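B., you asked whether I could sanity-check this one before it goes into the benchmark set. Here's the sequence:
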Amino acid sequence: MDKFVEYVREFSALLGNDPDVRFAGLVKGSAVLRACVAGQAESGVRVRLLQAKTLPDSPAAGQAQKFGRILLRDGLRAELLDRKNNKILEFDGVVASNEPAKEVIVQDSGTIDGIVVGIEGADDTVHVRLRDMDGSEARVIFRDLAQAREMARRFRGAPVRVHVHGTWKRSPDGVWATNKVYADHFEDLDEESALEVFEKLRSIPGNGWSDIENPLDAWRSLREGS
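And here's what the prediction gave me:
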């Protein structure tokens, strides 16, 4: 328990110890800590993690290195993922056992963004394929036929965000993907480009993005884990 408390404390420090950053529980299937970031803290946490990844001399990067050293001490490794399971940071330690990595399946909820590129009926459900901006696809199961018909009207149209629950699978090489997820509801997204969004963010003083020379490249680096 002492080590668990230490992990939570250092993880909180990595996210900035903001009152709006709260512990949101554990996820079954793996040692997964979940944090909930609320209100105005979200932009601050995003900038802090961006600094941890791209500015090695920043306090955020120092905290990330400290967290990594604690995991290394205990023979562990970890990844920091966003709500869509995109890898933000990786903490390389030594796997505690010499056993080969195994496939892991966890139950969770989240959102999937993309363009509707395929719709198939299956029994009393409808399977919808969504393709994101990087070209990867996810399959979402709709039980509500009225919602499925609305999705059909958006075929090859503007992007949507689908709120889902179900299971995600991690391959032995550490890549996460949807396994079997069900739609709860969805919303339409605007088609404003990422460049336009970051130009707006850069115009707001003091939020961190205005200090980054090329925020679009930094954002892509965070998404791709490079």
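One thing to flag: The chain has three domains: 2-91, 104-188, 196-224. Otherwise nothing jumped out at me.
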